[in-house]
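Mods, move this if it's the wrong board.
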Amino acid sequence: MSPATGQIRASHYKDQPAITLESDTVAAQFLPGVGAKLCSLVYKPAGAELLLQRPNAQYLLAPYDGDYVGQGECSGCDEMFPSIDRCFYEGFPWRGTPIPDHGEVWSIPWHCTEVDGGLHFATHGVRFPYQIEKWVAFTDSTTLRTDYRLTNLSPFDFDFMWASHMMVNLEEGAELTLPDGVRKIVIALDFDGRLGRYGDELDWPVARLADGSERDLRRMQPKAAASAVKYFVKGPMPEGRCALSFPASGFTLRLAWPAQQAPYFAALPDEGGWQDLYSIFLEPATASFDRLDVARVRGECSTVRAGSTYEWWLEIQVG
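Not the wrong board. Structure tokens:
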């Protein structure tokens, strides 16, 4: 990766020490002491904060193994690893070990250093023997790239799930684009059941609902719809990319990642149906359906071999 010229400076996010990595076009702010969280992402030409923010003046610090929604800030973009939902690890030699809500690494400190015009973050597992690292830099003024490396520090294979838990602010008229070849989605969560139940499959992009009506899932509903649903693309993604366009503001947010290493993708449009928010979660993932045990049942979990590494990347482009 050849980083583009950018500025790195110490900053504050609410009452927390932060570090800001900034290009001419985008300003990205991270919290090294709180999961290396990407807490703010500003598209400077439009003065637009892309990531969901909470109004409280003090950052909500959750303890390790705390409740992500009930105790944590639940905003911005967190790293989910090695599961999203709480579950128990099933494989030898960690069988029965509980995996915390939304994983281990979102609530613990990461070590942060400046390197080659970008940032390097690293932390270690608490209940499992791994190291996870990420290198963050601009490849050009509009594109922020993160390169990940997971190292298995044990002599046993380790199953895991990583997802980028990116909570993006919406505006009316926003539209989600997925690659050609996506034909089906599978419901993982529906707060009111209007779209479907857990495990239901629907056509993409236009879904026929149980009442016979149709909904174009690409187009975000207004907040007054009071809807919130999470779905996974059925099976591996044909390509690792998605885009969210904001016609009223005149820009597009694009994500790209390697589909071979991170084959799955989930979206959670919250159109006023959860906590009175208007946002969408965009979640590239290495495994499906939020729980490591469910992903294993579906034959869709990921594994880093004994003493080996697993690498992937994520690009965020705004323009």
